[in-house]
Write a structure and sequence with these properties.
By secondary structure, the protein is an all-beta fold. Helices cover about 0% and strands about 55% of the residues. The strands form 2 sheets. Strands 2, 4, 5, 6, 9, 10 and 11 form a 7-stranded mixed sheet that branches. The protein is globular, with a radius of gyration of 13 Å.
């Protein structure tokens, strides 16, 4: 089982910024595509962004241009920089790890992000 530990959630006013971090408790980090998903009350979980071991990033339409995902393969850390946050970004954010050679995936416990108008 892969342990994913998230940090950095909190509350911010609209237009503010937050940075989320996820540390993966794995022996080999580069076999995982890492990502962030979010789930707001009453809504389905959706992709925020993901990034391959080689650094290729993919973003959900609602966050493209405002959020940036990055990873440090030596520190086994994935970071989500969130700028110009809006109330609709309020959700629980989950770190996600997808093993590249199968459908095996892992989830962190989630961290709350709340944006006030």
């Amino acid at each position: 089982q892969v342990q994913l530990v998230e940090s950095g959630g909190g509350q911010v006013d609209a237009g503010g910024s937050l940075r989320l971090s996820c540390v993966a408790g794995v022996r080999i980090f580069t076999v995982f595509t890492m990502g962030w998903y979010r789930q707001a009350p009453g809504r389905q979980r959706e992709l925020v962004a993901n990034i391959t071991a080689g650094g290729i990033a993919n973003y959900g339409d609602s966050v493209r241009g405002r959020f940036t995902i990055s990873r440090d393969n030596d520190l086994k850390t994935t970071t989500l920089q969130m700028n110009n946050l809006q109330p609709e970004d309020t959700a629980i954010y989950y770190c996600h790890a997808q093993f590249v050679a199968s459908t095996t995936q892992h989830w962190g416990p989630g961290t709350q992000v709340t944006v006030s108008s």
